[in-house]
Design brief:
single chain; about 160 residues; alpha/beta; Oxidized Rhodanese, domain 1; five-stranded parallel sheet; 5 helices; 5 strands; elongated
Length: about 160
């Protein structure tokens, strides 16, 4: 009799586990959407949310993006509709991955991660941007927009 009871308990636990895994919602995150997909999503009504700091946002952002820094996202998202499509991005993708997971786990149905972040954005930028190079003047080094490392600690 004990053997039947144990078998029944094991089979019941397996069935319950399978049922639970099938019924529990899977976070709906589409990772690494392209810039073109981001533009299409935004045109169809998706919100584009920049999770960088305010100073990063002011230095240049995707047009019509909302600035909700990652540490404020939970509080802001609590007032949003869970059916609102949202594309998140940051500088390079680390914070947006956290933001996408947070939103999906909060019940949002359509969450997209522009994983390359602002560094991968090739479209127009709002809010100003740092110059990529200085074109004239004494001591100018042409960088073609690439970063330059200057070591001020060298001895002569």
């Amino acid at each position: 009799m004990n053997r039947k009871l144990v078998m029944w308990a094991v089979v019941s636990a397996i069935i319950a586990g399978v049922a639970f895994s099938l019924l529990s919602p899977v976070p709906a995150i589409k990772k690494n959407v392209t810039a073109e997909e981001l533009t299409q999503l935004q045109s169809s009504g998706a919100w584009v949310v920049d999770v960088r700091t305010n100073s990063e946002f002011v230095s240049g952002h995707i047009p019509n993006a909302l600035n909700i820094p990652l540490d404020q996202l939970s509080q802001a998202a609590a007032t949003w509709s869970k059916t609102q499509p949202i594309v998140v991005y940051c500088a390079t993708g680390a914070r947006s991955a956290q933001a996408a997971t947070l939103l999906a786990e909060s019940g949002f149905k359509k969450v997209y991660d522009f994983g390359g972040g602002a560094a991968a954005w090739t479209g127009a930028v709002e809010g100003g941007s740092a110059p990529t190079s200085i074109t004239a003047g004494p001591g100018v080094v042409k960088t073609d927009g690439l970063p330059v490392f200057i070591d001020f600690a060298s001895s002569t």
